[in-house]
Amino acid sequence: MQTKEIRFASRPSGIPSNENFQFVDAEVPPLQDGDVLLRSLYISVDPYLRGRMREGKSYVTPFEIGQVIESYVVGEVVDSRSPDLKPGDVVSGQLGWRLYNVAKAKQLMKTIPGVSPTTALGVLGVTGLTAYFGLLDIGQPKQGENVVVSGAAGAVGMTVCQIAKIKSCRVVGTAGSNEKNEYLRNELGIDATINYKTADISSALKAACPNGIDVYFDNVGGAVSDAVLPLINDRARIVICGQISIYNADRPAVGLKPEPALLVHSAMMRGFIITQYWPRFAEGISQLAQWFKSGQLKHAETIVEGFENTPNAFIGLFRGENLGKQVVKISG
Amino acid sequence: MQTKEIRFASRPSGIPSNENFQFVDAEVPPLQDGDVLLRSLYISVDPYLRGRMREGKSYVTPFEIGQVIESYVVGEVVDSRSPDLKPGDVVSGQLGWRLYNVAKAKQLMKTIPGVSPTTALGVLGVTGLTAYFGLLDIGQPKQGENVVVSGAAGAVGMTVCQIAKIKSCRVVGTAGSNEKNEYLRNELGIDATINYKTADISSALKAACPNGIDVYFDNVGGAVSDAVLPLINDRARIVICGQISIYNADRPAVGLKPEPALLVHSAMMRGFIITQYWPRFAEGISQLAQWFKSGQLKHAETIVEGFENTPNAFIGLFRGENLGKQVVKISG
What we know:
The first copy, chain A, is an alpha/beta fold. The first copy, chain A, has helices at about 50, 125-140, 155-165, 180-185, 200-210, 225-230, 260-265, 280-295, 310-315, and strands at about 1-10, 20-25, 35-45, 70-80, 90-95, 100-105, 110, 145-150, 170-175, 190-195, 215-220, 230-240, 255, 270, 300-305, 325-330.
């Protein structure tokens, strides 16, 4: 049996382009005991994959040239040699960008019945867990505190904003279009938003945070972070979840040094990777699902159709084309 | 009765100069119940005082123009209206730069008998506590880990280096002269040192830390920190204790952004001020005194003689003139 797959053709310099990806016809290997054959329904494209396209030491193994790109994929079981999954089951897992994947059943998770399977790539998946543990475990927001979220209209940022509201914080988000900001305010109840592309970030942030900033959840880095630092309060917590503004840079980023502000305010800055919370994933999913079912937590997504558009959907992340989770619909 | 005192005459721009200080003759106020009259023996001059000379929000109240400068002072009781202290007792406390101070007895601490009273300004005082809690509580060094200390020949840095050795770490220090570095290696047993004024810091640090850096205790900031970031290990802890390289800058510091390294390595950076550990001071002093008495922890100091040289001793800190604790001997 044949599949199509997307391989990593060359390392990007700057923003990735279609040339960095290669579509290849390949043979689907036969199932071994414990395996299932999956037809891809939805593929998740994520900013952090840019890090895997870089050579050298990083927190995830770099992609090798010629390797099939991997990310979270939702698929339907079409054949099974595992007692745990049967044809028709819908599951998610870390899989290749392929029309058909062969995978170990025990490395897959069934999607939650009664909700869109794409939530497994968003609020009820690793995206939601990243927001949940990053904000609550590292940011430790307290009732009434001021939380600023950069990349607030992205999949993680949007979930962070909502969890901070659930925790009775005042939430200010930055995003790159008026439409995104209106969505954050009107649909998600975020207290204030800033369009970082059109506003003077420093003065807008100062006006939006008259009582300073207690928690900064950073998905973006760069100019927004430089504007945050002078406004942090004593004992502020800065969560470094992503730095999308500089993922495509070829040189180390230079800018306002945070050390003086951290010193003066006895403040803290911490990076994390979601896999370190693996032992607590069940706790996180359970809480996220409860909020989702009660309507306190919404899932927003931007869907691009067609396997052939997977690289474009990924590249679009760096132009801010997505509101919420960027997903590619393969079939379904 | 008359005293001489040193008032804050004007806010420095850049490195402080003698013009920023004014020597004034003043009347010693009469003692109230609970007060003692102290003759100054030793005055501590500390880099962080530069922060108090700046206007605006900071972690310690800024000095007002015309105010007497304050820091830790060791003095001898010459008159007492407190049952807790009697003439001849030697105490330390946060006092004015004066020949004679009147102070509340309960805000003073007796120096430890049998050791030089200047240790109350160094390893057995706030300096030692800063090293103790900053390294152990924030840095959390584990046996065999690699600890880098900037400003390693300063009062705090030197104590950090020694505590890290007591905790069986491999310790690399940076300091600004070969004499200081020889002292660190030969007298204190530090594993490797770098003269940041003559070495290529990046390559020297890389050579000195073949297994990366787990804990960075930063007293200095600037170029040393920029060289540390590319070498940190996963879960590294960066303790921001001071930033002497930029205290005199008139603009916010710009340099290598630490966020990408913190993200990739799930690492942490935290500033602190020693007063937040107040409830644990007794624990800290007790442990420091035990190490000091057993010879595991040494106190080094640079003594300048004469009250009139107090501003110069302070200014000299920014030229790195001190090895260990910089103290001014007033009488004694």
